[in-house]
Amino acid sequence: MGELFLKISLICIWVLLGGFYFGGLYSQRQNLSWYLPVKNRIIILGSIGVVFGWLAIEIVFYAIMNHYLTSIWIILSLLVILVLAPMWLALQIKQIYTDSDPSKVLPTYIKNWNHFGPYLISQSHSHPQSQNQNLLFPKMIIIWAVNSSQIQDPLRLIEVGSLPKTMATNKITTNLIHLIHSDKKFHLYRFDVNLEEFPQGFYYRVCPDFQQFFVSAVRYPQISTKSGEKLKDKSGKDLEIVALSDPHADGNSILSEIEQIKRICPDADLIISSGDNVSRGSSWANWGRFFAQMGDFMATRPFYTCPGNHDGDSKKKARLWSTFFPYSFQSNDPSVAETNFFHSMRHGTVHMMFLDLYNRGKQPRLPDSSQIQSLIFDLEAHADAKVRILVLHNSIYCTGEFGCDPDLERLLLPIIDKYQIPLVISGHAHMLEIFRRKIPQSDQETVFLVNGGGGGKLDEILLHPKWLPTVPYHWEGRIHRAKISPYLGGDSSHPFRNDEAVLKHQEFGIISHSWTRIIIDLTDICLSMYDWQGTLLYDYKIPYQKRSKKYIRKNREAN
After folding, report:
1. What 3-state class would DSSP assign to 356?
2. In what order do the strands lie in the sheet with 186-193?
3. Nearest CA to 496 among 35, 33, 12?
4. 5: CB partners within 8 A, 6+ apart
5. May I ask the CATH class of domain 241-554?
6. Whole-prediction pTM value?
7. Residue 502 in contact with residue 399, Cβ under 8 Å?
8. Which pick of 85, 103, 148, 467 has the fewest CB atoms within 10 Å?
9. Where are the domains of the chain?
10. Regions of the chain with pLDDT less than 50
């Protein structure tokens, strides 16, 4: 009986070793050699081979000794455990998702959308065109899609005006409305609003339902050329930004997240995303589900984004991405003006830059030389900006599934340091993390925000047990503890590493579906991270300029 129990134990050990080894490989979805040292792989595979070989010899031995029932019993036990072990691993993963992912099956009206939008984007300015003007306004672009069967009057598609009573009907025959895409099912339209005609804001309605929207002038992109221009507008309101990343909203429900954002940030000025808005960027249907879920939140404030790997890592995806987001792609060299998706946007003294790490689907992961030239030229042209924010998809520093990115670090860190960029926002890894790094020879710092918990499934590999050798960084539950147990001895050449970025700069980390509220005032960038239930996860403040004695005294008096 003891011998039989021993054999069953060996079978269990064999299955568990194999399950953890190949389960870790599956969860990581990368080449195992990237993160599992050769020595560990040899030990695990060798153990699997030894146990399996011994069991095979035992089965043959019992068969030769005419103990067929024992051999059959061992084989049946092995088959049962081979079924139960994957089920056990599947239940673990299911628990991870159900405990942290509030997404539900997409509603029918989202799956089978008949129209989506309208949503707002803006054309960017590469630099101030005239120093004689106090403010320069780019154009606001309204984009929406409608099922062709729902268009009752082809000559009445959009109405725009400074007041609801004076809205003018803009007809497609005026050539003001651009038909971007057309097929049997739907039409995609674009309308450019000249913001100089509406200095106080504008109202608009689009077919088919002609719901009325109002866009306040405080949400207009604008370039301040006054050296003493304050960040606050006439109403005294700070700039408020909602930052998302990796929503993958074609298959995941982000409706609850959007409702919480509306509740917490009803007066947000704009929305930014660091990519992977959908899972399959080459699908019109996927994009339709994304815009349908974002709903009217995007109808009253501009949306700025850069492509993630799911959005634009192939030429087909990139072509569709540029259709939905026709930003003004810019470069310091007119001959390469359309070779990349780099674009920037200015709101008062806040300047935001968006990189395409996939180079219009031509080359993955690293921005090409034309984008770097565009970035540097853009930073030089907006030298008067008080706050600079860099947005990209892949994270320079991260302890998630993809680890740190030494190539991006080498390419972008000198630029970040030179121009003292205080905030870098990224995603790619589906988690929330903050790294804080002091800029050399400066009293300023750069905060690297990994903001990838927008809706896609979380990085489940990080929740595996500490003793599992395939875990690149160790966590305790969902809270980060990577500093406690350095991985690979701090090997800086390894993508998964507890190097200086983790040991010195890591500030906070949590595995949670999340989004970030950013409020920029006269002296600080205030970050507030929330989960999908609207619970505050973490607060962080980045001072970007020194407080004057007058400012401190005024604050004390107010308090």
Report:
1. coil
2. 115-122, 140-147, 186-193, 177-182
3. 35
4. none
5. alpha beta
6. 0.77
7. yes
8. 467
9. 2-100, 241-554
10. 1, 23-37, 93, 95-102, 126-134, 225-236, 330-337, 469-470, 478, 486-491, 547-556, 558-559
